[in-house]
Predict the 3D structure of the following.
Amino acid sequence: MSVMKILTFPDPRLRTVAAPVEKFDKSLKKLTDDMLETMYSENGIGLAATQVNVHKRVIVMDISEERNEPRVFINPEFEIKSNKSLYTFSEGCLSVPGFNEEITRPDQIILKWQNLDGDNLEDEPEGLLTVCIQHEIDHLEGKLMVDYLSTLKRDRIRNKLNKRI
Ligand code: NI
């Protein structure tokens, strides 16, 4: 396994829309292993392939407190079940290091994805997994958490991150 380099905002490659995974082979398993190692090494709870400059619909995640429940989502998609119930969470992102911002998202969704064998799975998650998976699926669409903020706030974050390079 190896740690991959994470792209940071405002790198334009983070705006790429990822392509569906069609081959469920050894290289896909290797990609998810490397992504998990990268996520754990940075203490993140989720990572999308877009963030490591691989433009495939692949997400890894671990929202357990013990950091011992790695999860892999291939070709994930969701439908909003109800807009009535919302969940506000102070989100962070390995591509926007050092910033946490409160973002409100629907918390009742139907989530569909595939595992590493290509099996189709479905769930109706709640709480942290619900917001985390929406954050990560946004990455696959080239969207970032800063897009939910005001232009003023986004520009301030961009200026601060540009200074660090
Ligand atoms: Ni992120």
